[in-house]
Request: fold
Amino acid sequence: MQAHMDIVLRTVVAMIMLLVIAKILGKQTISNLTFHDFVTGIILGSLAANLAFNKDLKSSYMIMALIVITATSFLLSIIAIKSRRMRSWISGSPTVLIENGKILEGNMKKVRYSLDSLDQALREKEIFNLEVVEYAVLEDNGMVSVLKKQEYQYVTRKDLKLLSVPQSFPVELIMDGVLIEENLENNGLTKEWLESELRRKGKRISDVFYGVRGTQRQLVFDYYEDGINKPIDKE
Reply:
């Protein structure tokens, strides 16, 4: 029984430590990983697993190792911000894969990036024809950024000389059927106003699963009753 309790306690400590470390190191560590983030994540995961389950190692040693790795990673992040040369070594640097519509085979071989991977990356950008691409760059985090040739780029409102429409950040008003009063108050809105808007649609707050005021200040609601008799997919 004591052994089981020890594992439970060590696991909880490991989980809390990782959450604290993630907060310290910031969002970059949990987003698309650079070399530095990848190495840090692997080491932290290994140490946390040992802290949770390896009873032959003292908890104090594992916690100390986690603290040292966190401090080292944090220091490397600061160095990467301060020094461009070190940033390239610590986090990597972008690699051009396509230039002026031509695939750079030498760069592809240098980073060991296959044509299949390039084709997949382009398809994920909804690009199925290579002739569309002007530049393609393999970023530090492994993602591919693409610049299309001008004739294939989307037309913008500015290109069409259309007046710009003011936009605002979306405001969530109801989530999981619960009114978010703080968001209403912070945006100068009231519960009475929201109830009035819902009454126009023959609904009440309790009928709404998700409600948001969009970028054009329009109200969008998703109700519990969707009115779909035969859904395409049902789990």
Summary: The chain has a mean pLDDT of 81. Helices lie at 2-25, 35-53, 59-82, 84-91, 105-110, 115-124, 181-186, 191-200. The first helix runs from residue 2 to 25. DSSP finds eight helices and eight strands in the chain.
